[in-house]
Amino acid sequence: MDTTTTQEEKGGSLKMLQAMVGIGVICALLIVLSYEGTLPRVQRLRAAALEKAIFKVIPGTVRTQAFVYEAGKGLNLARCRNWICGICRIRRGGNAARDSYTC
To answer: What is the pLDDT of residues 38-54, one digit of tens each?
Structure first.
């Protein structure tokens, strides 16, 4: 009797562990998918809020321009399409003249 109950307990523990790992993987996948799915909208809303705040804090502002600090070059104008997002990423092309900034 004792060996039968011990084997059943080990089998039950393994099944429980497999179930917990499976649920954890599904939850992690749902978290990543929801983050990736909502990221573009969050960035758009953040950019709109930033632009609105700039015009509210500095009354009379007509337009804004983004700048990027580059090591060795100093402060330069940002060359990305959607500079207001504030999340310009540098894509290195191996040549500083060909580097591009994208959002």
So the answer is: 999 999 999 889 888 88
